[in-house]
Amino acid sequence: MSNLLVQEEKKKISETINQHLTKSFSLLTSPRTSIVHQYSSNQIFENTFDENNKQSEQLSFLHQITLSFHQSIHHKNQHNKYIKQTNIDSIEKYLANESNESVNIQSTSCKFDNRKFLFATFSFQISQVTSDKKYCHELLNRISTLWFGSNAERRQVFDLLEQNQIKCKILPEFIAHLAHSFSKHAIDIHDISIRKTMLYEALELSKKALNSNENCALCHFSYGHIIGVLLDINDFSLKDKLNKASLFKHHMKKTIEIDKNFYEAYAYLGRYEYTAFNLNLFERKAALLLGYTIEGNLDKALEYFHIAIKGNYDMIHTVYLLIGKIYQKKKQYVEAKKYLKICIQIPIQRKSQTNIVNNAKILLKDKKFENLSFETFINHLKN
């Protein structure tokens, strides 16, 4: 009887640890949590960072372990190398500690420092995969190294995770994040056939992650995002396009339903509303004949976009550009100029962002914007 009680107690402890891990990794693998690195690298403005400051203060030491997964292969700077080496050194110190003493981690200004607990539970989860400490060390070391390697090497990360999926209950979040990163890298590849192959492979991984955990915001976002990218490059039939567009919207809405602070999902929902608004009458009628009612609302798009600008991600240039375009359509030229200028000021990190910035520059050359100062003066006189 006592053995049963002990087993039940161990089960409860294990479940509690898994819950903490799942929650932590769901937060840490979300694209928006890279805000700390982006601010320290001068990639975003101070006011954007302030919106996320409370969240960044609560990030645990576990964030340092997973941060290397967030870094793009296009940005292997000195900061990346430092973080990567810090991760490996920290893991080596922990695994070398035979007396199972907790790792001495420098405390922060947070009232409750839960980093020791999270790091210990992370190591506990690894021990569930295998009791061999050497194997754990090699696995983590290898994953960290492969992620900064070639595409072929990065693909091995998925294989390593899949090999341990039976014991690893947080796998869905990891696969969703890696699949999303994989698809982001594919966007910049010029060869369409290679790009499609990579995207469909990423889609399968995202689908697997979503089937494993339907309550994961990142899983929904990753799956929806890849569908959206495929819509841009594939020659689907009209019915297939409408079906996939509907799926795209559904998964983005599920994302913010699960996580109200998933800013990038708001960006895509805003773009959906903007695109739907700009469809012509023929396209709307064709969709209606196939059983799809497409409605687009510029005010709704603005509502989504103004939430979206609290975060920072690859699509942030597009968000500011579209806000500018919407205000231009509404003939609110002062506001339009304000957001188009911000679009131009944000540093370019991907090839795909260059065209967006150039588009904003062209719009700012419009004669309507040249006369803004006079229009503003007249408006003040009227008031």
Helix content, binned percent: over 70%
Distance between the termini: 83 Å
Mean pLDDT: 66
- Overall morphology: globular
- The string of secondary-structure elements, in order, is HHHHHHHHHHHHHHHHHHHHH
**In this structure, how is the largest beta sheet organized?**
none
What's the helix count?
Answer: 21
Structural class, please? mainly alpha
- Beta percentage is under 5%
pLDDT under 50 segments (min length 5)?
Answer: 16-132, 373-383
- How many strands in all? 0
Report Rg.
23 Å
Describe this structure in words.
This protein has 383 residues and is mostly helical. The chain has a domain at 19-100 and 113-169. The chain has 21 helices and no strands. It has helices at 2-28, 35-40, 46-51, 53-57, 62-70, 78-95, 115-129, 133-146, 151-163, 171-187, 192-212, 217-233, 238-258, 263-277, 281-289, 298-308, 316-329, 333-345, 351-364, 367-370, 372-382. Helix 14 (263-277) runs antiparallel to helix 16 and helix 17 (316-329) packs parallel to helix 19. It is globular. Residues 16-132 and 373-383 have low confidence and may be disordered.
Topology summary:
Layout: H1 2-28, H2 35-40, H3 46-51, H4 53-57, H5 62-70, H6 78-95, H7 115-129, H8 133-146, H9 151-163, H10 171-187, H11 192-212, H12 217-233, H13 238-258, H14 263-277, H15 281-289, H16 298-308, H17 316-329, H18 333-345, H19 351-364, H20 367-370, H21 372-382
